[in-house]
Amino acid sequence: MRARVAHIASNTFREAVRDRVLYNLIAFALLLSGASILVGQVSIDIEKLVVINLGLTAVSLFGVVIAIFIGIGLVSKEIEKRTLYTVLSRPVRRWEFIVGKFFGLAGTLVVNTFFMAVGVFAALFYVSHKFVRADGLILIALYFIVLEFLIVCSLALLFSSFSTPLLSAVFAFSLFVVGCFAEDLRNFAGMAHGISRALATGAAYLVPNFSAFNVISSIAHEQPVAGQLVFHNTLYALFYAVMALSGAVLIFEYRDLK
Amino acid sequence: MPAIEILGLEKTYRVGFWRSRPKRALHPLHLTVEDGEIFGFLGPNGAGKTTTLKLLMGLVFPSAGSARILGREWTDPQVKAQIGFLPEQPYFYDHLTAHELLEYYGQLSGVPAKQRKRRVEEILYQVGLRDVRCVQLRKFSKGMLQRVGIGQAILHNPKLVFLDEPMSGLDPMGRREVRDLMEQLKLQGKTVFFSTHILADAEALCDRVGIIHRGELRGVGAIADLTSTVQGKVEVVWQGPQIPGSIKALGAECHVTGDTVRAVIDENQQDAAIDALRRERQRLIAITPVRTSLEAYFVEKLQHAETTAGRTL
To answer: What is the ipTM of this complex?
Structure first.
């Protein structure tokens, strides 16, 4: 069972890595990191701040685009192209397929993040000519970005399990944008009354709270991140991803592959 | 023990914007395929062949009924380790090579690593893709993809192979190779269940066929039984430069090809025809009864189904 999940994951990873579109996105992210150097040069005394802000935002944004772009096609494209038929006619359970796909995509994103992070650190070294202890905090921001990707991957898979690639992309990206403003939604729920309060509270807790993962700005200002936040974010991301994946499995288990 | 027992499998889809309109894709299907036979599932496009195969593969869920494959419930995961499946017009992962794809499917089928390596090489050779084993599948032609598809279906040495339109997209040589391969599978004691709308393929290969139309099974039987209806006519073939007048007088329909003549006459005039040929010193080659072709049987079943449907409407 574990072996089959691992084989599906490694095949998903291999397919994604060989996809040229993926390379384009990475190249674009690296270009953006390069651009941050230029912007940093025209920002007197705050070059480092600009490089960290711009670089990490680029990593996060392009990672999310890659996660959605690949994630939405993972199931629907396999149905559309009928590649799934030859997989599910073997002793492979449907949930194994979904979980394997998730790990394959997550692995792809971790590797991408690694290369994009190398770009950010290179840009940082270029503007400051040395690394200081506080630069280690960037790793925490990158860790949070990876957690964010896990949630986006699971959501993309969830939508992909019942919808078309285009609609899945719209759903996943919308949820990502709303999730970035989850704190504001919670504040709004606190101020609202009656049924709108109940609806806003429900929506605030249902959408993924991506704002909790965004520590880019504070890290750029060399402010430390509380260990508790790391722990809570890890638990939250795992819980959310497992729930979304379970939803994807439940839908996919009973879906006719026409 | 039959290889496949289909016990009233049926499928109704819900269509329309609100999915409120039922559309029956397969009426309750009862069918048995014996172990070691090549069974052809015939029908025009949209008849329900692929739906049946998808139901048996667990790709779609039945509205009612069940099936047993190799003596087990068709949903049993162990069954899937013993069956191979080629979907219609297969498409595979673009960025994998033929070797990588077969390796991947071998892993999913649980073929042990050592055996897998050998088996992948054997299959690549068998389906004629050894020279392009390292080329990515996106560069393959339709026919080559079909060969990969057949390769993946038999890779794990299954006892039962389901092939959905296996000759589709193949050139005459490719079709011949697939026919040979299916015959080899039969010789190895495997059961082959294949769907097709090309009757010549079925006639050349199958022990038995089933005819499906509009989601309903219209007839099942051995090819020999289905085509055995002697229409009271015989075909006489002889070698000679001309058609004797006494044969023409029998009212024969004659066709001359080079120095060979074929004449279809009534069965009761067979002796008279032989005497006539002896008299004219023509060389008799063969006398065979005229049988109903599979095509004629197929068309008759379909026309009958259309008439019945018309009456129902």
So the answer is: 0.85
